[in-house]
Amino acid sequence: MNSSVARTVGFIPGERNVFFHLLTGCNLSCKHCYINPSQHGTATLPLETVRAWLKCFSRPERETNLILLGGEPTMHPDLAEIIRSAKGMNYHVTVDSNGYLFHDLLERVSPRELDFLSFSLDGPEAAVNDPIRGHGVFATCTENLKKAVAKGFHTSLIYTVSGLNIDHLHRMPELVADWGVERFFIQVIGLRGKPAAGAPAPEMAWQVDPGHWLAVVPEVAARAAELGVAVTFPKVFLDSGEPFECAGLVAENFFIFPNGRVYQCPLCEDYPIHAFAMENDRLVRHAGLNEDRFFTLTIPEGCVMNKLLQPENIEYLDDGTPRHRISCCLLKQHIDPQ
What we know:
Elements: E1 7-9, E2 16-21, H1 37-40, H2 47-57, E3 64-69, H3 79-88, E4 91-97, H4 105-108, E5 116-120, H5 126-133, H6 137-150, E6 155-161, H7 172-179, E7 183-188, H8 210-226, E8 230-234, H9 247-250, E9 252-256, E10 261-263, E11 276-279, E12 282-285, H10 304-309, E13 332-335
Parallel strand pairs: 2-3, 2-9, 3-4, 4-5, 5-6, 6-7, 7-8
Antiparallel strand pairs: 1-13, 8-13, 9-10, 10-11, 11-12
Helix pairs in contact: 2-3, 7-8
């Protein structure tokens, strides 16, 4: 068996992943930002509220994956204390940062206190990255990434693929390996937040067509793995005969926002159809016709939420059947480092 071939990582029943947006504020204004202040609020959660909510989602007897997000999470003045509190509740903690690392994060936490520090970068050079993420971002992000590696932090890098940068993705494997990055996450652009409002430019579509994605992403992922980097990327399209499975029915994924909304499906985050809400520091079901009511529906297109919210993603053959079946957006493929 070729060890560079990606394997699909199936959902593990009972696995719990908590994606916690501590705030929605950010120092950048990325073109593809999915944060929607009208739906997610503009608050920065106080430390005690964060601790109370973390306790609500923790499992002392079993490790839970926690991803601390923003906006830019390092803008939270108490992030170091939040990380320590989470470790005390048996969380495996990752911080997803744009690379600016405010409040001297690398000095306030140690590599043993933070499981992974993840950096977002959308191009192999400033000329590609900075038009998407902002002037000077490439230089700052890569400088701080190298500092984190030198200090012994486990690091990962996230590259969000869109029509603006897919043709530069092939240049990333050598860079991430040279920088000492341990994990490389390739993400697909989601039509949420700013991208939902339209294309980035008249001549450029945000999303990548299936043929282009399949021709580029698996090959780049295999190359990165050959260079010693673990690679994860979304399945996106199901193989012929491959069953569709919804993470909302198998695993426990919670996407928490500062205004108290708690989603199970990230595709739904532009709409007030969250399955849960935080009320008085307790997780309660959100009344009404919400995302979880749709998870059980079976359709030829695969993901029902994609069909309902992003129907333009789906192409059809002349007989009306979908050209590609869309997988759950949380279904991943993975290649171990060689």
